[in-house]
UniProtKB/TrEMBL annotation:
Transmembrane feature ranges: 593-619, 631-652, 664-688, 708-727, 753-776, 788-808, 820-843
Protein name stated in the entry: Extracellular calcium-sensing receptor
Subcellular location: Cell membrane
Keyword Hydrolase part of the UniProt annotation: no
């Protein structure tokens, strides 16, 4: 619909070009279809155009296509935009006075009003192409009278104007259109700009949001290409940053109050307290009026460059609602003599210029008596003061958009200067030719415009291949002025030419936040997760809305808002808070309370055994000691001593030698002990059996034979242990799987088969010994040693049978403790069962220490 309306208005304005080529035989005369007077105009050797939004509202004519439509009426004079137009006029006059730039040539200009609307912007573009005086041209031939255009302000208008100029290949330099879409050289091949592209602005805004940790924001945009492309660019920049957009709302191009109230309601009730706004001041003005009527406060506004320095919002009535606004504005610059030049513009000097009269009415609310154009205004007395809302018109200390207009005019002038001073044979066109200075085509000027580079006010101006300039912004903060109005304070900058991560510089202490606060507003969907927690996204909600879940054991998060918890390395474990990995507790049976207790018990056992050995040695000639081979008794006592002492090898940090010594020493000493007991059992059994007539078995169990039996039985265990040590010896082992928070230092048996063979062989010897002793338990005599051997073997087997499940199921150092306990328990069992009765007789009942009593023959 808009395109149709656009053509309806455009057709009456079109000039019929090259009519002779289209219709042979007809007159090739230019016929002006309508008349659109420029606001400001001056002749020159080369003419450039200017399009500015001198009014910010318009009344469209009736477009019913049944009759010629009337002119578009523009309302709402904008002194700020008129200052931009005057800046262009000043720049042209300044260039014409210079002798080093375009000497002997002059620039002319034609400046038109776009009314800040795409449709009227297109109308202005056609008017710039045609314009007054063209009706006097006899022929439509040769180069056109217009070389380039300075314009437009809004991106929506620039898109339309650039498309209109494209068939004529006329370059256009925009001073205020930042839509990233305009960087598309295929669609906008003649477009240039001295304002950074929104592709850089959205990067700057994204870095600003990240800097202040605003992760939950709303976006409000205008209904045009500028707003749409800015939103798309921002969403792309926010991907992967952890920042989420709570809502996206659009202000209608044709303002609707009901829709605006809906947007305001969403903003007021959302938990997002930061709102990014991509809009022009024209459509934002009525929206902010409704916003203030609803008394909405507590919102941090992020302004785009299109309205962050708009003077229309500087009134004191805006401060309670917009104070603290922050955004990126166009870089400031210096324009020598601009303020003095503006003061020369008055109705006395330009009595017939309606724009000057409108300026005077806007600034002072009066009109000169000599003018009949503003009869509704009172006559000026000369004592009027500038209206507060338009006081920025004369504020030219550090202009922004005006400076962009200034740079744009100079870019054209320098490009034209380079074109005129082209060296023949070194030109940029075919066959290295130069342009005809008396018949310059716009596309020839664009060739030089693409390569121009000059310095103005200390700033280098040049364009990249997309027509964009070097990206640079000032960070603007809206603060309360002395008169209660809003002042734009520079609190930082963004320089796209810097290295990544160094583009944004912020003076945080200079910023004043909404509500005249000095602390940054918080805008998050969920509070940050402290170290030791991770973010768990809520189902069906944006990534910024999450719950904080503690890290699992063995994992940590050492920074705020961690997405995942990091697992600690194998030798480390998480602390209680889950914030740092600490070395795991190394656990082994050390000389702690448990280790010392077992050590004392082992030493006590060894001492008791040696004490018994000493008693037996002292009473070695008594019947109790001699009754059944005292040599075997001494062997048993010595092996038991070693059994007690080998328990000490299990205590302490495992090493390669201690691991090998533990099981081999234990198995060999116990095998030696059980072999001696087996030999003693055989002797006892043979001694009582030999009393039968004709039985001479004792000759086969003499001392030598007993030693051979002991040696052979022990040798088998030695062979098993040797094979074990050679094939797969025990070794120190760091067990991190049984209990993940600890490192259990233990001895791996190496070969499970060898380990169980060792235990199995000891068990075999014990079972054989138990079986033989059991057979001799009822032999006659007051001191039947077979009975005590039976009890000792019964205890021994019970201990080791209980050891197996306890060994398998005990965790950590308790595995070693169980093994030591089995060694000590079985050793004490053998010691007490075998030797306590004898020591009792020797020391406490010496009267029974006789052969007759022991044989049961005393009376």
């Amino acid at each position: 619909m808009q395109a149709f309306e656009s053509m309806t208005v455009l057709l009456p304005w079109l000039l019929i070009h090259h009519l002779s080529e289209l219709t042979p035989g007809h007159a090739s005369k230019c016929v002006l279809q309508n008349y659109f007077e420029p606001g400001l105009m001056a002749n020159g050797d080369y003419v450039i155009g200017g399009i500015f939004p001198l009014h910010y509202n318009q009344e469209m004519p009736d477009l019913n296509c049944t009759y010629k439509p009337g002119p578009v009426k523009c309302n709402g004079f904008d002194p700020r935009a008129f200052r931009w137009a005057l800046t262009m006029k000043l720049a042209v006059e300044e260039i014409n006075k210079r002798t080093d730039l375009l000497p002997n040539y002059s620039l002319g200009y034609k400046i038109f009003d776009s009314c800040a609307y795409p449709l009227t912007g297109q109308r202005s573009a056609v008017a710039v192409l045609n314009g007054p005086n063209e009706e006097n041209s006899p022929m439509c031939e040769g180069a056109g009278p217009l070389l380039a255009i300075i314009g437009e302000s809004g991106s929506a208008q620039s898109i339309v104007v650039s498309r209109t100029l494209r068939p004529f290949r006329i370059p256009m330099i925009s001073y205020f259109s930042s839509c990233a879409c305009l960087s598309d050289r295929r669609e906008f091949p003649t477009f240039f700009r001295v304002i950074p592209s929104d592709a850089y602005q959205v990067k700057a805004i994204a870095k600003l949001l990240l800097h202040f940790k605003w992760t939950w924001v709303g976006v409000v945009r205008g209904d045009h290409e500028y707003g749409r492309f800015a939103l798309q660019g921002l969403l792309k920049e926010l991907e992967g940053t952890g920042i989420c957009v709570a809502y996206q709302e659009m202000i209608p191009l044709l303002y609707e109050r009901q829709r605006a109230l809906e947007i305001i309601h969403i903003m007021n009730h959302s938990t997002a307290r930061v709102v990014v706004v991509f809009s022009a001041e024209g459509e934002l003005t009525p929206f902010l009026r409704d916003y203030m009527e609803n008394n909405v406060t507590g919102i941090q506004w992020i302004a785009s460059e299109a309205w962050v320095t708009a003077s229309v919002f500087t009134g004191s009535e805006y401060y309670p609602f917009l104070g603290g606004t922050i955004g990126f504005g166009i870089r400031q610059g210096q324009i020598p003599g601009l303020r003095e030049y503006l003061t020369t513009v008055n109705p006395d000097r330009y009595p017939s210029n309606t724009l000057v009269h409108e300026l005077w009415g806007a600034l002072y609310g009066c009109s000169f008596s000599s003018s009949n154009l503003n009869n509704h205004l009172p006559s000026c007395t000369g004592k009027e003061t500038v209206r507060v809302q338009h006081s920025a018109y004369f504020n030219t200390s550090r202009p922004r958009i005006s400076y962009n207009v200034y740079k744009g005019v100079y870019a054209i002038a320098y490009s034209l200067h380079n074109l005129i001073h082209c060296t023949p044979g070194k030109g940029p066109f075919s066959n290295s030719t130069c342009a005809n200075v008396f018949n310059v085509y716009p596309w020839q000027l664009q060739q030089y415009l693409q390569e121009v580079s000059f310095t103005i006010s200390g700033e280098t101006v040049k364009f990249d291949m997309k027509g964009d300039s070097i990206p640079s912004y000032d960070l603007i903060n809206w603060q309360r002025g002395s008169a209660g109005n809003i002042e734009f304070v520079n609190v930082g900058m963004f320089d796209g030419a810097q290295e990544s991560g160094q583009e944004l510089v912020i003076k945080e202490k200079a910023i004043m936040w909404p509500g005249h606060q000095s602390e940054v507003l918080v805008s998050v969907c969920s509070n940050s997760c402290a170290p030791g927690f991770r973010k768990a996204v809520r189902r069906g909600q944006p990534l910024c809305c999450f719950d904080c879940v503690p890290c699992d054991s063995g994992k940590i998060s050492n920074k705020t808002d961690s997405v995942e918890c990091m697992a600690c390395s194998e030798d480390y474990w998480s602390n209680v808070d889950g914030t740092v990995c600490i070395p795991k507790v190394v656990e082994f049976l050390s000389h702690d309370a448990m280790g010392l207790t077992l050590t004392v018990i082992a030493l006590v056992g060894a001492c008791l055994t040696l004490a018994v050995f000493a008693v037996f040695l002292y009473y070695r000639n008594t019947p109790v000691v001699r009754i059944n081979n005292s040599e075997l008794s001494f062997f048993i006592l010595l092996s038991l001593t070693l059994c007690f002492l080998c328990a000490l090898v299990f205590i302490g940090e495992p090493t390669s030698w201690s691991c090998m010594l533990r099981h081999t020493a234990f198995s060999i000493t116990f095998s030696l002990c059980i072999s001696c007991i087996l030999g003693k059992t055989l002797v006892v059994l043979a001694a009582f059996t030999a009393t039968r007539p004709g039985n001479n078995i004792m000759k086969w169990l003499g001392p030598t034979q007993q030693r051979i039996i002991i040696f052979c039985c022990t040798l088998v265990q030695v062979i098993i242990c040797t094979t074990w040590l050679v094939a797969s010896p025990p070794f120190p082992y760091r067990n991190t799987k049984y209990q993940q928070s600890k490192i259990i230092l233990d001895c791996s048996v190496g070969s499970d088969l060898a380990f169980w063979c060792v235990l199995g062989y000891i068990g075999l010897l014990a079972c054989v010994c138990f079986f033989l002793a059991f057979l001799a338990r009822k032999l006659p005599g007051n001191f039947n040693e077979a009975k005590y051997i039976t009890f000792s073997m019964l205890i021994f087997c019970a201990v080791w049978l209980a050891f197996v499940p306890a060994y398998v199921s005990s965790p950590g150092k308790f595995t070693t403790a169980v093994e030591i306990f089995a060694i000590l328990a079985s050793s004490f069992g053998l010691l007490f069962c075998l030797f306590t009765p004898k020591v009792y007789i020797i020391l406490l009942k010496p009267q029974k220490n006789t052969k007759q009593h022991l044989m049961g023959k005393d009376k």
